[in-house]
Design goal:
Layout lengths: L2 E2 L2 H22 L4 E7 L3 H16 L3 E7 L5 H13 L5 E4 L9 H7 L11 H8 L8 H12 L8 E5 L6 H10 L3 E5 L6 H6 L3 E4 L17 E4 L3 E3 L2 H8 L3 H10 L2 E3 L4 H7 L2 E2 L7 H20 L1
Helix pairs in contact: 1-12, 3-4, 6-7, 6-12, 9-10
Bound molecules: guanine (GUN).
The site of guanine has 9 residues, from strand 4 and helix 6.
Length: 304
Amino acid sequence: MARILDGKAINQQILDELQPRIASLTAARRPPGLVVILVGNDPASEIYVRSKVKTCLELGMMSEEIRLPGTTATAELLSQIDVLNHRDDVDGILVQMPLPKQVDSRAVLLAIRPDKDVDGFHPYNVGQLVANSPAPRPCTPAGVMEILRRSQIQVAGAQAVVVGRSDIVGKPMALLLLHAHATVTVCHSKTRDLPAVCRSADILVAAMGRPAFITGEFIRPGAVVIDVGVNRVTDPAEAARVCAGSPAKQAAFDRNGSVLVGDVLPSAMAERAEAYTPVPGGVGPLTIAMLMANTLQSAEQRLK
Ligand code: GUN
């Protein structure tokens, strides 16, 4: 039986560890503060942002949400960031991605003070990551490392394969695994014989954003599979494919007319992996835990 890596439980463990640090900082000075900027009204982004703000407030941190219309110009966003950069009660600034087409995302990321960049997306912090020097790390890959560490999965010496090369997940994921002494292969849409490369993995990380693309033939029996994908499937035929062998998922689709599936076929993970992260309830909760950790860390540094 495959071990299910329970992201919700690990998330709670981490939040419980942060709580006393937040309390003592609040007693001594002020609560850590995070401001989240959401441009436009992408439904998935709205859910993420709400959940980030809610978790902050539950932990006793200060949190504000700034909502800007989808037509916002780069200059307007830059001037909002400038105010937040100078506010003493703000330790973390997060601009939810993706941004609308007319916005220069790179200029936005560059504008955030690196020591308030709790996403770790500023080029300075990317450089610190490459050099393995202290700085905020991108939350999703950092969360994956916490899952591996807290589940006693040996990374040093392991063959790790990362499928996907995004700036937010794939690239930083590969670097974190490398710094933890894995032998890392990064795959993408042009990779030749992807199933064979994936089958070489002791630790397979799927992060390319394609519903249930990774099937049984990609997974070496006994591998650890980390599924970073979150895809909502609404087409009934596609749902039947991704839910095959997972009656609970099919039932969810029949009930709701849609179902969440990762980048890995759920039945394939359950049948072949030694351990895997489910979707939902695997990697997702850790992204928020790491955002809270980064914000607290930033506040501790600032108030030291
Ligand atoms: N969009 C998807 N993931 C993330 C994330 O970790 N941070 C931000 N800012 N936007 C995202």
